[in-house]
Amino acid sequence: MITLQTALNLTDPIIPKELVAFATRQSIILEFAPTFISIIMAGKVGSFITSSIGSMRVTEQIDALEVMGINSLNYLVFPKVIALLTYPFLIAIAMFLGILGGLIAGVYGGFVSLDEFIRGLQEDFIPFHLVYAFVKTYVFAFILATVPAWHGYYMKGGALEVGKASTKSFVWTSVLIIFANYIITQLLLS
Amino acid sequence: MIAVDNLKMQFGSEEILKGISTIFEQGKTNLIIGQSGSGKSVLLKCLIGLLKPVAGSISYHNKPTNQMNLQQQRILREEIGMLFQGGALFDSMTIEENIMFPLRMFSQQSTSNMISRVNEVLNRVNLDGVNNKFPAEISGGMQKRVSIARAIVNNPKYLFCDEPNSGLDPKTATVIDNLIQRITHENDITTIVVTHDMNSVMEIGERINFLKNGILVWKGTQEDIFKTNNQDVTDFVYSSNLFRKIRDVQNQNI
What we know:
The structure holds 2 protein chains of 2 kinds.
Chain A (H helix, E strand, L loop, with lengths): L1 H8 L8 H41 L2 H7 L4 H12 L3 H22 L5 H9 L5 H26 L5 H31 L1
Helix pairs in contact in A: 1-2, 1-5, 2-5, 2-6, 2-7, 2-8, 4-7, 7-8
Chain B lengths: L1 E10 L2 E11 L4 E6 L5 H8 L7 E6 L2 E2 L5 H9 L1 E4 L11 H12 L4 H14 L15 H13 L5 E5 L7 H18 L2 E6 L2 H7 L2 E6 L2 E6 L1 H4 L5 H7 L3 H13 L1
Parallel strand pairs in B: 3-8, 3-9, 6-7, 7-8
Antiparallel strand pairs in B: 1-2, 1-4, 4-5, 9-10
């Protein structure tokens, strides 16, 4: 979409076509892959975490853990935090596929040649942008594991409240991701 | 034996338990009965440590829980088995994994030993061959029996049951009741059952504690409950049409 939008809006012949690839690369690495994928994951993974832990609360499975002397919060949440340490791999794949998609759309759509696209991808590349993207990916991963787990673990009520908690957790996870994105961008890029 | 002394519990300003004092005897099925909202489940949660009472003490074999150090509390946890109202089986685990879970947490046994212990307790609750099924694949009555198997797999000294018959048909409910009583007698454990089912009172009520509005208003045995003049207890017992008719028939015979 970014490739197509950039290409379609490039009407001035003075502006080089390489800009299409440059814009694709920058927007995917800086925002689309880490932030947008994280918001999608807040809906998918976050809701799952909230509803699964919430269901355990409703059906007394968490009480069963506590009666056995197990620290239920640690038992249920810690593995999720550890599992989400692998989250940057997913974001790396998203970056690769996003840029590959841009290449296919741009080249096969006839907007830019393959050479121009490759040149644009390599132009003014700042490696620190990748560091920035993966730093915020780790922060988002932590938010994705903990905020939905908190909403599930401390929910009260029955099955209806599990659904409400899932919705609430998605909203709060998304808000926190966007807020964290702002803070990290200010700290690392400004 | 579990002794409760002047136990008080409140949520906010609402007093739920108003100074409960009683003794739950070893080798007996001790029932806590009363209407919904009388504080039965809160008392049970205080006993198993899920809720912290605001006042009073709970002693397991004369050792007050509030004077136990972390190591003693951990040992006590291992001695407690709990049957939850809905079974509380872990959905993501098979029946075998569910029952093996306390063994994995508390013992250093080999997997083969743990599996043979799981089979032993499954046999005891008459559920052979369900090892690899998931909780969703078996009936409610079977889930209750699996939950009992999980509760007794570590040979607990104390067994707590929160409304074990809720949602079960009368025949299955009787099976569960008899199973709880048999385990209590065979293992000589202290069993506490929270219920409002009069059939359970008839089946397994060796020692009965009647709660009303957070107050222990009556204590006695199965025989005593039909002879008492306590109005709260008689109102509760004879709220059932069946028991009213039995009383009427008995009165006519006299």
